[in-house]
TrEMBL record:
<feature type="domain" description="Thioesterase">
    <location>
        <begin position="2"/>
        <end position="183"/>
    </location>
</feature>
<dbReference type="GO" id="GO:0008610">
    <property type="term" value="P:lipid biosynthetic process"/>
</dbReference>
<protein>
    <recommendedName>
        <fullName>Thioesterase domain-containing protein</fullName>
    </recommendedName>
</protein>
<dbReference type="InterPro" id="IPR029058">
    <property type="entry name" value="AB_hydrolase_fold"/>
</dbReference>
<comment type="similarity">
    <text>Belongs to the thioesterase family.</text>
</comment>
<dbReference type="Pfam" id="PF00975">
    <property type="entry name" value="Thioesterase"/>
</dbReference>
<dbReference type="InterPro" id="IPR001031">
    <property type="entry name" value="Thioesterase"/>
</dbReference>
<dbReference type="InterPro" id="IPR012223">
    <property type="entry name" value="TEII"/>
</dbReference>
Length: 185
């Protein structure tokens, strides 16, 4: 029943409540879409605080956080248009979208997430942590916004491209896990 968080600073503030737990053992970050930008923002804040950093950041299906989105904002679409866009994105199960009562509970959360995704632009800060980017070749993210992740690490940035759109992760999840495991060993 709490209001949904709709801005990156507040998301990071909440996550920092767990900074001692997060940094207590060697770790890596994986984020898909907005989660990639949250992972980067949290790693930047941990770096600023002088805390242990992730051994690697895995960014999936996301423009580099310092790039301005080239897409029309979704968070402020009228209700029916917002639901239609969720259907088009093909990331929310049809059973959820068709359940009006459940959607009434989820819409404020989804709008808040989309507001962050639509509006957040990070300051460019090159982390000492390597970044590995996963990208679906049919996703609507500009190539220059994918390649721009390199500017956010002092290490070489690596890239893996998959067939598919924004939710290529559903088809290639096992392969992605294998790549992550290989890079972490």
């Amino acid at each position: 029943m709490e209001p949904a968080i709709d801005n990156m600073p507040e998301v990071i503030e909440e996550l920092l409540l767990y900074k001692d737990f997060i940094t207590s053992k060697p770790y890596a970050f994986f984020g898909h879409s907005l989660g990639s930008r949250i992972s980067y923002a949290l790693a930047c804040e941990l770096h600023t605080l002088g805390l242990p950093l992730p051994s690697k950041v895995f960014a999936s299906a996301s423009r580099a956080p310092h790039c301005t989105s080239n897409k029309k904002y979704l968070h402020d679409l009228p209700h029916d248009a917002f639901i239609a866009k969720l259907r088009d994105l093909n990331g929310t199960p049809k059973e959820v979208l068709d359940n009006a009562e459940l959607m009434e509970l989820l819409i404020p959360l989804l709008r808040a997430d989309f507001k962050i995704a639509d509006t957040y632009v990070a300051e460019q800060h090159a982390l000492p942590t390597p970044i590995h980017v996963f990208h679906g070749v049919e996703d609507e993210i500009l190539d220059e916004h994918i390649l721009a992740w390199q500017a956010l690490t002092a290490q070489p940035c690596t890239y893996k491209y998959f067939d598919g759109g924004h939710f290529f992760i559903h088809q290639y999840g096992e392969e992605m896990i294998n790549i992550i495991n290989q890079q972490l060993t």
